[in-house]
Amino acid sequence: MDEKERTVRKAKPEDIPSILDIVADAVRTMRASGNLRQWTDGYPSRETIATDIRNGVGYLVTSPSGQADGYFAMIPSPEPTYAVIYGGEWLDDSLPYRVIHRIAGRAGTHGIFSAIMDHAFSVTDNVRIDTHADNAIMQHNILKHGFRFCGTILLANGDPRLAYQKLLDRNLEKTE
Q1: Where are the domains of the chain?
Q2: One digit per residue, pLDDT tens: the chain, 176 residues?
Q3: Does domain 3-167 sit in CATH 3.50.50.60?
Q4: Which of 36, 52, 97, 118 is placed for a possible disulfide with 126 were both Cys, Cβ 3.0 to 4.6 Å?
């Protein structure tokens, strides 16, 4: 499928079963690629996804037929875990940004990350994202899409994550 045929829409409560299937596929892909320590103990849970949807920050990536193939959360700044960064600095720490969390794709699909980035940069010019050091697939996609490594952040539970930012020249927050 052509990546450009994918669409992004806000997720709805009735999408939760499909989203949980997509998350399970993503976890299997992570494990198969050697990422054994990210998304453990049932994370992201049904409640996490439901909270994303209630808060209006959960999104589905769909095929032309409408099949749900991907999921992500796009959250407006500030992200509390990004307040302190170790071993580097953000490209800009004064402008509003959006954070992309919980990216998951159905096994065997392609173009999910590209569709997410197209959507994110249609809303804002400043995106931050983080990932586990063992997530080579995500690191590849992040760098492929022009993000710059900025340093390491710590999650609320103290786990480290590699942090990236991409800042376009326009620097204007847009409305969805």
Answers
A1: 3-167
A2: 445 689 999 999 999 999 999 999 999 999 999 999 999 989 999 999 999 999 999 999 999 999 999 999 999 999 999 999 999 999 999 999 999 999 999 998 999 999 999 999 999 999 999 999 999 999 999 999 999 999 999 999 999 999 999 999 864 555 55
A3: no
A4: 97
Type of residue found at 3:
E
Strands 98-105, 58-62: parallel, antiparallel or unpaired by DSSP?
unpaired
